[in-house]
Design brief:
Elements: H1 3-34, H2 45-62, H3 68-71, H4 74-99, H5 106-137, E1 142-147, H6 151-162, E2 166-171, H7 188-199, E3 204-209, H8 216-226, E4 230-235, E5 246-250, E6 253-257, H9 266-302, E7 308-314, E8 320-326, H10 349-357, H11 364-370, E9 374-376, H12 383-390, E10 405-407, H13 409-412, H14 422-437, H15 441-457
Parallel strand pairs: 1-2, 1-3, 3-4, 9-10
Antiparallel strand pairs: 5-6, 7-8
Helix pairs in contact: 1-2, 1-5, 2-4, 4-5, 9-11
């Protein structure tokens, strides 16, 4: 196994152990500074220490801080560390609020958070410095080369040059012609290039081959093994597939996906669901608990009927579900067929304020808690509109791969409200698909902030 591979394997565990030691050290120092005569091993301080450690592991796990693919790049380590730190601080703060224990002093929280951030930052900088020193003294990348100068070969070369795991030794063959001569034998120039690669210490040669040239792999492999060089073959599918694609494996079977879907990964879905549960719980407890009676009373005073309005909407995988809102209109028979429009006479005075400020959507946090919606995602449409627009708008049903959301990328970019013009719905669908293909937890957080800002500003298309 290559030196770099051993280094990466050990780095994950060194990172984990050092982080645990540092966050416990920050807790211990903060405790000594804040509680002069108390014992750390008494109740409830020992419980807080256990929760402190547990929440760090949860936060780090959410962003894959100790996964091998993250450990391969320093930028990914820094990014995952920053996110884990922010969520660790938030989770422990929420725990402190819900525990309602006055024995935790604010000075302790301030000190422990500052120390944790400082220790983690110093450890990351120290690790970066150590890697620079090791890289100068030792050859930590695996020597590799590329055979094939087509589009796939050039992209592969770019990846190998940037990766810290490899030492890119260039291209072996500078023309993208067949490696077999007219007599069915390997060209002498190919044999000479493989021999030269072996002499230069190249360990692996990555060969890009189009599907119709895979028969050449047998001849290449036989010659490479004679020269003690490993060959790794990469199918060059870009000439056959004009659109971007992603290849994964299901057991021994290669699977080509024509669309990037981060939320198709169970880890990402779990992160999003945990975030939805935590966020919706906070809204239900701290906002809805007092806001529902206030708004409900005003709704009842202004027009007879229920406080909440429920309607069947299209959910994930096009499965219908009951979506809840504050009732913003007078009770009418057209609610399942007709969208709200500007100066709609069905809207009550309080309803106009609720719709303008988006407060009418707050009961959908019940839907989020129950699991039929997410905090962020494509807005759920009426069943009639799903049927109508899926017939005339290309890729409309792609948005149904996700759980619908209370707010979404399309909404914070101005595509909300009435959609009588199919071009507006096309733009909304494009934004929803972009969100699906570029999802990240931080993108959800960004959309939440943008939504809150828009609520205070008021939105032109909200009526």
């Amino acid at each position: 196994m290559a030196t770099r591979s051993r280094y990466l394997y050990l780095l994950r565990y060194v990172l984990l152990i050092s982080d645990i030691l540092l966050i416990n050290l920050s807790f211990f120092i903060a405790f000594l500074l804040s509680y002069k005569n108390a014992s750390l091993f008494g109740v409830p301080y020992l419980n807080y220490l256990l929760v402190w450690n547990l929440l760090w592991l949860v936060s780090a796990g959410m962003f894959g801080l100790y996964r091998s693919d993250v450990a391969q790049h320093l930028v990914d380590i820094y990014r995952a560390s920053g996110k884990a730190l922010i969520f660790h601080v938030a989770f422990f703060a929420f725990y402190h609020i819900f525990a309602a224990n006055d024995q935790i002093q604010r000075s302790f929280l301030l000190i422990v958070y500052c120390l944790e951030a400082m220790f983690l930052l110093v450890s990351r900088f120290s690790g970066t410095l150590l890697e620079v020193i090791l890289s100068k003294r030792f050859s930590m990348g695996r020597p590799v080369a590329v055979m094939g100068t087509g589009e796939t070969g050039r992209r592969l070369a770019g990846f190998l040059e940037k990766s810290q795991n490899f030492q890119f030794g260039g291209f072996l063959i500078h023309e993208d012609s067949t490696y077999i001569d007219e007599e069915g034998s390997l060209r002498s120039s190919v044999s000479e290039q493989l021999a030269e690669a072996a002499a230069r210490g190249i360990k692996d040669v990555y060969v890009t081959l189009k599907p119709d040239r895979m028969v050449e792999a047998v001849y290449l492999l036989e010659e490479a093994e004679r020269q003690c060089v490993r060959l790794k073959f990469i199918p060059d599918l870009h000439a056959s597939l004009a659109v971007p694609f992603k290849m994964t494996y299901m057991g021994e079977f290669p699977v080509i996906s024509m669309r990037e879907e981060p939320l198709d990964d169970i880890q990402n879905r779990f992160k999003k669901r945990v975030f939805d549960m935590v966020f919706s719980s906070l809204v239900l407890v701290f906002v809805m608990s007092w806001l529902v009676p206030v708004i409900g009373l005003i709704i009842k005073i202004q027009s007879p009927g229920p406080v909440f309005f429920r309607q069947q909407r299209s959910g994930r995988n096009n499965e219908p579900f009951w979506c809840y809102k504050f009732r913003s209109m007078r009770v009418n028979k057209d609610s399942d067929r007709r969208q709200a429009s500007r100066d709609d006479d069905r809207i009550t005075p309080i309803g106009r304020f609720l719709r303008k400020s988006s407060l009418d959507e707050l009961p959908q946090f019940f839907n989020v808690f129950l699991g039929n919606m997410s905090v962020i995602g494509p807005r759920p449409h009426m069943l009639k509109h799903t049927e109508q627009y899926s017939a005339i708008i290309n890729r409309y049903m792609v948005r149904q791969f996700l759980k619908p959301g209370i707010s979404g990328w399309a909404q914070v970019n101005g595509f909300r409200g009435e959609t009588e013009d199919p071009r507006l719905m096309e733009s909304r669908v494009e934004h929803d698909i972009w969100y699906m293909e570029n999802w990240s937890l931080m993108l959800d957080v960004k959309i939440i902030f943008m939504t809150v800002i828009n609520m205070f500003k008021g939105e032109e298309m909200a009526f």
